[in-house]
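A quick aside before the break. I want you to see a complete sequence-to-structure record at least once, exactly as it would be stored in a machine-readable document. Don't worry about memorizing anything.
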Amino acid sequence: MMDDSQVPDAARLTDEQIEAVRDEIPWNEAACVEAIARAAEGYAWHSRDAEVAELEDDVLRIQALGNERLAQLQEQLDAVEARRVEEYDAWQVLLTMRIKERDAARDQRDALVEALEVFLVYVTEDLADQDLTLHTADTGEAWTEEEASGASDVHTDTDNSAIEALAEDSDLITYTNDRTLTDAEYQIEVFFNEDSTLAASDDDPFWLVARFADTSNFYFGGTYGAAAAADKKIYKEVATIVTQIATGDGGFSADSHMAFKVLDATKKIFFNFSEIISSTDNAITAKGSVGFGLGNQAVATDDITDTADVGIFVVSDLGAAAAAPIINLVMAPYIPA
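That is the input. The structure line, written in tokens, reads:
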């Protein structure tokens, strides 16, 4: 290849010719620029395609990871759902058992209620302030005043919700009910309402009477007010001789429950469903009658109180002839509002 010095002068371009050629260069330069731009654009698209391909690879990797994680989560969810189903089935079994137990308890309750010898002392008719001997219990039994050393009596209170006595010092009063008892084993219960205080002194007792043959032969047990040092007592009266056979302290409060349980030789006093005192004396064995009393059946200085308001009186058969076993707790329908 020859260099510029070897070009004949005749072949050399003049300055004018060179200028003329240069005049044509702008067009050629534009074409070159366009070509370069096209090339650059092509390179850019090529680069973009590579980036897109790389991004697509990234997306695929992310999707793969996401699918893997989703599969893991689905597996965990399936495991949780399986456990939930198992637990639900277990709860269903447990619930079914509880329903059966509830139904069995209701059946037992119904059997117990049917077996209860129940009579209520509060009245439902308009007989407010009526002497108890004029009132027939809600289950049909009559009351008898067996003894009264003074002028006091027991009557229904003014809103027909309970019975109460007229206060009287150093006197007594005893009532029985003509309910026919199955045998000599039973439980007598009373519910004291919210007005019951048994006064603030220690000589105002309320008694439950069992195996009452006559005014000289019966058992009685009950409670004094909370001020008494030993507020629960059980006595027997045999041939006019009164003997204490059990004593103890259990306290007293309004809105409370007391029971006197008589089982063959066993005699027990419960207060708010807790056993307080007991005895095994069995001097009187005939079933007799049941009832209640107030005043000085045991201690000459005791009084008849007007602060023992009793809303319900219940007796339950407990002997072998009872249709079903009786529990200490009286069923809810018998608890006064």
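Two observations worth writing down. The longest strand covers residues 206-214. Residues 119-334 form a domain with the Jelly Rolls fold (CATH 2.60.120.560). We'll return to this after the break.
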